[in-house]
Amino acid sequence: MSNYERMVERYEAGAVPWDSDSPPPEVMALVDGLQPGRALDLGCGYGRTSIYLAELGWQVDGVDFVPQAVAEARARAKAAGVADQIKFHQASVAELDFLAGPYQLAVDVGCMHILDEPELRRYAAGARRLLAADGRYLLFARLRTESADPENGPRGVPDALIRELFAEGFVLQQVERGETQVEDQPVWASAWYWFRRG
To answer: What pTM does this model have?
Structure first.
């Protein structure tokens, strides 16, 4: 089963435990005090981060390849009264040529870790092209370990590869490692990365 098919199946079944009313506190802390500008929500899902940012005055582009996620995100943005500040796009985060920067902020809360390495390289190139000088990029990712099973969940990305992908044009400001458990699934290694565009 492809990543796309797996994610479509999860959304069709309503198996989206990452859905909540607010984005993670790491997102809220980062944008607290930032001057609103243009933001890119990579793997936007139902739009919780996009909507939160729009409510703070940001103009947002949300990207997700799952049609059900994009449709629900649009409905939620309309219900929140911020639909005119967000454009949701059904597309792969590894194929961002249709977007034009610059963005002052990019956020990815658990999307890139499902990509394979060629897709990851295209994703990083897209982020590099789209982010403004001094722009912020916040990433939450599953880290690949020896025991990771890419056939039964997110692939995970080795920490070394994340650092390599964003070595050119980005400054890594902070990393916060942890462990994540979603519902009754096994615990997996994860990390938050705070980058600034050089």
So the answer is: 0.88
